[in-house]
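Thread title: Can someone regenerate the structure for this chain?

I was given the following input by a collaborator and told the matching structure tokens would be attached. They weren't. Posting the sequence so someone can regenerate them.
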Amino acid sequence: MIDPRAPDAIGRRPDPDGELLVQKVVATYVGDARAHLAQLPAAGAAGNPDALLRAAHALKPGSANAVAEQLPTLCREIERLGSGSDVEAAKTLLADVESHLPRVLAALAALRSPDH
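Best answer:
Regenerated them for you:
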């Protein structure tokens, strides 16, 4: 789901506020991911390949930055299918994104907790 080395890797950057950086990356991703997750099924339901491609493209880099292991791959595939106007095939991957992303968000929320 999430590469367990991600918070440490981000936190070890040459920044005296490494933990603050982790918190910022996670907070930004969580906020953006929820919006993009809402856009994906709406674009699929509308049969709009351009909107599908844009939503997947927007979710992909944040997922990679948050090191959500499977999401960038799913987003790339949805992008590819959207660019080829194959909305029906892309819709089959939306369920994977919709089930995977909440688990990623929950894991990231745990990273943000003061106990971490």
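The mean pLDDT is 76.
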